[in-house]
Fold these 3 entries.
Entry 1:
Amino acid sequence: MSVFTENPVLYKEITTRFQLRRQSKANRIVIYSIVGLIIPLFYWFSMLAIFRDSNAARDSYGIFLCVLEVSLVVFLTPAMLASAITLEREKQTWNALLLSRLTHSEIVVGKFIGGLIPTLIALAVFFPLNVVAACVGGVGLGSFLLSHVLLIATMLLYGALGLFFSWACRRTQVATATAAGTVAFLTLGSPLALSLWQSTMGYGVSTSTINFLPLWSNPYYAMAELTMERNGHAEVATLLTIGSLIGTMLLLVLVIRKLAQGPKEMSA
C-alpha cells in the first residue's frame, strides 16, 4: 500500500475535516459567512489596492505574504496537527490503528498530509491575489517562486511540530497549548532577543538586523526581507527554506521511529 495513495488514514483525515454536517450550527454559519461574504469583500478591496499603482501592488504583495499568509501558516497549521494523534488516544482508537496492517509511515504521513489540507486551502484563496499583485508590482519570477517555496517549507515545519507534540502529549489541550507556546517562542523570541542585543551592544558596533543570526530563523523576518525590502537578502529565505525542510524530515522520522517501539508506545 502506498504512503500517499490508497492510504485509509489520509482518506479518513480528509473526509472528517470537511464534513460540514459534523460541524455545529454556529461553525457552519461562520464557514458560510467567510466563503460567501468575507472572501469576496477581501478580494474587492485588495484588487482596488493592487491596481492603484505599481508601488501599492508590490506593497500589497508583501503584506499578503509576510503578514497574512505567514500568520496562517505558523498558527493554523500546528493547531490542526496538534490533535491528530491525541484525539485517537482520547477516543481509544490509537492502539487499534497501530496494530492494523498499516505501516508507521502510512499512519504518520496520512495524519500529516490530512492536517495540512486546511492550511493549503487557505493559501489557495490568496494565491490569485499574489499572482496579480506580483505582475502589477513587477515582482521577479525568482522572488515569487522563492517566497512561495519558503511559505510551503514553513507550513511543513510547523505542521511537523504540531504532529510531534500530538504524539508527545497525552491530551489534545496539552498538545495544542504546547504547540502554541513553541510557535510564540519561535516567532516572538528572536525579535525580543534582537531588542536586547541592540540595547546592550552600544554605539560603535553594527547592530543591523541582518547581523543578528537568530533572527534568520524567524519566518516573518525572512519573508519581509524577500518581499518588502527593495534590496532584501534572499539568502535568509533560502537558508530558512532549507532548514525548514530538513527540520520537517527529522521530526517526521523521529515520530515514525518512536511508533516503531510497538508495545512501549502503546503503553505510554
Note: Residues 8-267 form one domain.
Entry 2:
Amino acid sequence: MALPGLGAPITAPAADLPDWAKRSTNLANAAIGAKALFATDEFFAPLERMLNPEPAVFTPGLYDDHGKYMDGWETRRKRTTGYDWALVKLARAGTIEGFDIDTSHFTGNYAPAVSIEATDCDSEDLEALAKAQWTTLLPSTSLKGNSHNLIKITPEQTWRVLRVNMYPDGGIARLRVYGKPMGVFDRSQPDTIYDLIALENGGRAVAWNDAHYGEPSNIIMPERGINMGDGWETRRRREPGNDWCILQLGATGIVESIEVDTAHFKGNYPDRFSIQAARMEGGTDQSVITQSMFWDYLIPEQKLTMDAIHHFKEQIISIGAITHIRLNIIPDGGISRLRLWGKVVS
C-alpha cells in the first residue's frame, strides 16, 4: 500500500539468468559479508545500497534532502573532468564468472559505461589498496538504462576487492558478482567443526529439478530464513516421484551432524527428506545429475515437521569423505536452511 503522497513501490523484475549465473554465488551480496569500502561520490545514494541482495525498488514521490530517493549507488552530475569510482570488498575471495550490472529504475541518470578491476589484496585499508596490483576484469563497457546488464568473463585466479569505475557519473541499482567462493578452512586444526555446505564456506547449488518459488542456493545462506520466500520451494508435484537438488560442499569433508530448518514453511513443508552423497572427482555439473541417482545414502528418509529446526546425528550413515550431496524432499515443498556440520579432510 502506498503512503500518503507517495505512489505504490515498484520492485524491479528479476533477471533472466543464464546458466553460468544460476550456478554461481553473488559474491557482492552484503547479506553474506560484502562491504562498501569507498566511493568518490555518494551525493544522491550511498554505495552500500548497491550491494543489497533484494531487488531494487522505486517509490514514486519519495524524496530526501538530496533529491529523488534512488535504491542504488548514485553520484552527482560531474562538472569536471574524470569519473567516479568505488571499492567493494567481496564477501569471500573467489573466482568470478561474470556480472549483473543492474540499472533498474535508473533511466535518465544511469551510468553510461563501466569498467571493473580486481585485486587479491585482502586489506580494507585504502592506502594498502592503492598500492596493490590491479587487473582489469571488464574493460570499459556500455550499459543500458533500467536493465540487467549481464556480462560473462573468463574466470581466472581468485579475487577479493573490486574497483568499479563509472564513466563519467550516474547510478547503478545493484552490482551482482557471480562466482565461486573459496572456503576459509584452517587445515592445521583438523578437529575443527564447520558447516561444510555453507555458502560463506564455499558451498554452492549445482543442479535441481524445480525451483518454482525459491532457489536452492537460499538454503545455504547464513542465519535463519526471514520468511517463506527465503528458502528453496518447489511447485506442487502432481506426478509420482520427488523433488531434489544437488549441492557441492566448500571442501571435502566428513559430515557428523545435520540440521534441516523448515522455518516459515507450515502448510507446504516436505513430508520427508533424505540425503545421498559421494566424493566426486572430475566430471561436470551436468554429469553429476545422472550419477547422483546412484550415490550412497548419507541419511535415509526422515520425517519433517512444520516451521522447526530438525537435528540428526545418530541417523547418519558412515560413508567416508564426500564432496557433493543430493537432497531429496519427498514429495515436494519448501526448506529454509540446510546445515552439514563436519570436519575437513585432505
Note: The CA atoms of residues 234 and 326 lie 15 Å apart.
Entry 3:
Amino acid sequence: MIQVIQGDITQLSVDAIVNAANSSLLGGGGVDGAIHRAAGPELLEACRALNGCSTGDAKLTKGYRLPARFVIHAVGPIWRGGYLDEPGLLASCYRRALEIATEQGLHTIAFPNISTGVYGFPKEKACEIAIDTVQSYLTNETTSIRQVTFVCFDEENYQLYGQKLAETD
C-alpha cells in the first residue's frame, strides 16, 4: 500500500525513513539536517564510516534516537536541466532504497520528496518518477515491503502526490 501524508518524517515510527542526503552523508540542510538533528550525534559517526555515497545510490544506518529503526540515505541528483540523466538518477535513488529495505526484510518505509528542495528538481516531474518507481518495484519485485509512505513537508508536494496517487488507483 502506498500513502501520502504531510508532516515531519523524523516523527514517523516506521522500519526505515529515507534521508534526502548529499554525497558526503555528513548532514546538510532541509530533510537531511532535520534527520541528523533528531537522530543525534551517533548518526553522524555512522555516516562518517560509510565514506560517502554516489548520486543515485543509497546506504543504510541505524535510526539511533529516531522512532524509525533505520535511515536509508539516498543521494538525489541536482537538477541541471534534465540533460545529465537526472530523471534516471532520481529513479535509482528510490529503487536502491527499496532494494536495501527488502534486503533487510523491512515492512514499512517512508520517503521525503528527494531532490525537490535546494537541488531544484521540478516537483511534478519528481513526483511522477517517485510514484512510478515505487509502484513498479512493488509490482515487479519480490519484497517484504508492505507500506510505503511519501511524507511531504510542503503543501505543493502533498497536493501533487495525492493527485498522482488518486490517478493511479
Note: The chain has a mean pLDDT of 97.
